[in-house]
Amino acid sequence: MDIGESIKMAIATLTANRLRSGLTMLGIIIGNASVIAMVGIGQGAQRYAAGQFESLGPNTLFISPGTPQARSRTFDIPQTLVLEDAKAIAQQVPTVKEVAPQLQVQQRMIYRGRNLTATVVGTTPTFLTVRNFTIDRGRFISEQDIERHRRVVILGSDLATKLFLNENPIGQEIRIKNLAFEVIGVMEEKGAFLGNNQDEVAYIPITTMSSRIVGQRSPYGMSLTFISLSARDENSIEAAKFQITNLLRLRHQIVDEDDFTIQTQKEALQIIGNISNALTLMLAAIASISLLVGGIGIMNIMLVSVTERTQEIGLRKAIGATESDILTQFMIEAIILSALGGLLGTAVGVGGVMIVAATTPLEAGVAPVAVAIAVGVSGGIGLFFGVVPAKRAASLDPIVALRSA
Known about the structure:
Belongs to the ABC-4 integral membrane protein family. By secondary structure, this protein is α+β, with helices and mostly antiparallel strands. It folds into 2 domains: 3-51 and 271-404, no CATH class; 97-225, no CATH class. Helices cover 57% and strands 18% of the residues. The protein has helices spanning 3-16, 18-54, 68-72, 83-92, 127-130, 143-147, 157-164, 206-214, 237-251, 265-308, 310-318, 323-359, 368-394, 398-404, and strands at 60-65, 96-111, 114-123, 135-138, 152-155, 173-176, 179-187, 192-193, 196-197, 201-205, 226-231, 260-264. Strands 2-3-10-5-7-6 form a 6-stranded mixed beta barrel. Strands 8-9 form a two-stranded antiparallel ribbon. Helix 11 packs across helix 14 and helix 12 (323-359) packs antiparallel against helix 13.
């Protein structure tokens, strides 16, 4: 019997039992769809994170107090960075263009009975250029605001909308920690950064934040949450990191482990990429279990099919069909089930990825490699798990098969 005739017989057998064939393919369909969707969404998350970091500017560095190990051992942020450190970096590190110190806390804000809790950031005029932000209305913090500890505030776009609704906030007063602050500006919409809404933030002079909101928290000066800075150009990033490290170690009189952490944009993006890669692989591995379950389902149904078709097998062998013919037909049936399930699963997975891309900020896309691997694995699973029932059918003795029918 030629291969074409075997394929026709396999298709006829499978279509005669549509419900059973469909249920048999279900595990393969779910497995393929899950693998393709998980890989596509994971890659979309990576692209989204890369876009978020690129919005900061290519030459940005961040200095945070303490080391990752020290921060993981306590809920309190170590008080090892102070404003004088930021000033020293701006004055003494030639590869640094601008420095933006930041001190931030969560505070309740009130305006005419409307109140909410949001992040309040104490910073300096250089924040706009270092962090690539833009003012929409009004103005940002000035050097005079810093020197005179003025109680002025700039609101993020969402924060301004929630507090003032359709009213113009410029010139109005809000209360922060029971102190009156004049609204002098509204930021242009920025969007979320790694899950944090940057448009629900208020900005005040860093001196006002230290003296009126949080108070003195470090014996060495005004403590900072972190320092953002920009290098002069992309080629200066590593040199800036090296020079800042030496300067801070000297200022903090460090002999052993640093009490600060410096991260470049590229390093932060690499960490995020490694995390998302690990999560994608884990989710894809979990989804792949469905392919294994689907393969076992194919083997079980094919074994049942061998039992049900004992008379057919015996009759075919009695009129001249060889063991190779029987083996080929059952193998083809298993491969058709897994391949068709793989194609349907691919369609479902691609559709799921397109829906995610259309309804979320993730730039999810279909990875051709994931599709090829999923379809190839599903076909291989059908071939692998179809061997046992196919061999069992081929080895049936025709006389015994006809007697048992």
